């Protein structure tokens, strides 16, 4: 029964080389900087080319997977051809990504790079699966890996294509806002008066005596936490307002405007991890100093977001009111946190 094995292994040899080549492409993508583009860059042409290379890659994945899905397996010659086609498709994807000059904005570039990386990773996974599979059957893993490449290739149609970097920044801010909204709702739900924060996790019998300080909030805790909630809500409001301002006024006509949008996206990215850290420290047993530290971290990120927004082109005079109001709200809640924790210092 093993007679056909060595020949089959032999036939798959070109795939090993391809896997090596794809890993090298992936490593370059992860660390690499796109070029500055030698000719004038045209965004519509870029999107067309990117869409085409993703589509071709999807087709090559299908061809490769089908060839190894049932006997007879491809000859060494056919496998060589299939492998070359896969490698060329992936090289084309990477090449088009490298067309995208830095000047188009780092937020846009990061999104395109992530999508490109995902396609290359998917193809590596597929070649892995084929190389490791028994040669005479289509494995569940191979089906999943092929579907993975298709999904990664379809991502290109979800990339924000509006006005250059502005669309990319809108999509990045909207994603941050979604995460923060969820965190705020979860915390509000946990803080409902008299509710046991761990009620859904632990049964009373497990803990025995339930008057344990570790599992509930004291009155003092609740006072401190209401100011923290104020900061979390200010985070949500901040992202909402900045997102609306970028939609209304964001432009990507000059390097300066593109850089301002990137700065906003970068700093906004720090909001949700800071909100999460604060929320985690709010669960009992509450350590007031840890809460104060995390609140101060979040407050300083929010002040930075407001500062960057205020001095950028997305905040004409008409937007100054909310910037001022939210700056006041952040200070007010942070001062309350400080007052509640003063005796702990």
TrEMBL record:
InterPro entries: GCIP-like (IPR026907), GCIP-like_N (IPR049317), GCIP_C (IPR049318). Coiled coil: none annotated. This is CCDB1 protein. It comes from Poecile atricapillus (Black-capped chickadee). Residues 50-191 form the Cyclin-D1-binding protein 1-like N-terminal domain. It is found in: Cytoplasm; Nucleus. The keyword Cell membrane does not apply. The keyword Glycosyltransferase does not apply. Transmembrane segments: none annotated. Residues 203-307 form the Cyclin-D1-binding protein 1-like C-terminal domain. Keywords: Cell cycle, Cytoplasm, Nucleus. Signal peptide: none annotated. Belongs to the CCNDBP1 family. GO terms for cellular component: cytoplasm; nucleus.
């Amino acid at each position: 029964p093993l007679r056909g094995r060595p020949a089959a292994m032999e036939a798959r040899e070109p795939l090993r080389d391809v896997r090596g080549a794809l890993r090298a492409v992936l490593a370059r993508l992860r660390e690499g900087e796109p070029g500055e583009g030698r000719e004038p860059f045209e965004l519509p042409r870029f999107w067309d080319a990117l869409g085409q290379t993703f589509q071709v890659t999807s087709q090559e994945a299908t061809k490769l997977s089908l060839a190894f899905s049932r006997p007879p397996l491809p000859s060494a010659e056919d496998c060589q051809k299939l492998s070359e086609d896969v490698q060329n498709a992936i090289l084309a994807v990477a090449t088009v990504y490298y067309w995208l000059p830095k000047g188009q904005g780092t937020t846009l570039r990061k999104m395109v790079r992530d999508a490109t990386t995902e396609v290359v990773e998917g193809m590596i996974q597929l070649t892995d699966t084929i190389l490791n599979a028994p040669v005479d059957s289509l494995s569940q893993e191979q089906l999943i890996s092929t579907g993975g490449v298709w999904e990664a290739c379809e991502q290109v149609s979800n990339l924000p294509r509006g006005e250059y970097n502005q669309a990319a920044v809108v999509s990045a801010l909207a994603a941050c806002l979604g995460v923060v909204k969820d965190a705020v709702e979860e915390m509000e739900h946990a803080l409902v008066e008299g509710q046991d924060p761990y009620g859904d996790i632990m049964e009373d019998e497990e803990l025995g005596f339930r008057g344990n300080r570790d599992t509930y909030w004291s009155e003092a805790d609740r006072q401190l936490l209401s100011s923290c909630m104020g900061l979390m809500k200010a985070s949500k409001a901040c992202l909402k307002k900045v997102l609306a301002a970028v939609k209304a006024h964001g432009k990507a006509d000059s390097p300066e405007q593109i850089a301002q949008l990137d700065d906003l996206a970068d700093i906004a990215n720090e909001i949700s991890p800071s909100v999460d850290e604060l929320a985690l420290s709010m669960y009992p047993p509450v350590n007031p100093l840890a809460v104060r530290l995390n609140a101060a971290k979040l407050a300083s990120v929010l002040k930075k977001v407001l500062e960057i927004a205020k001095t950028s082109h997305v905040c004409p005079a008409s937007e100054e009111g909310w910037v001022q109001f939210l700056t006041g709200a952040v200070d007010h809640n942070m001062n309350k946190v400080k007052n509640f924790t003063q005796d702990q210092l």
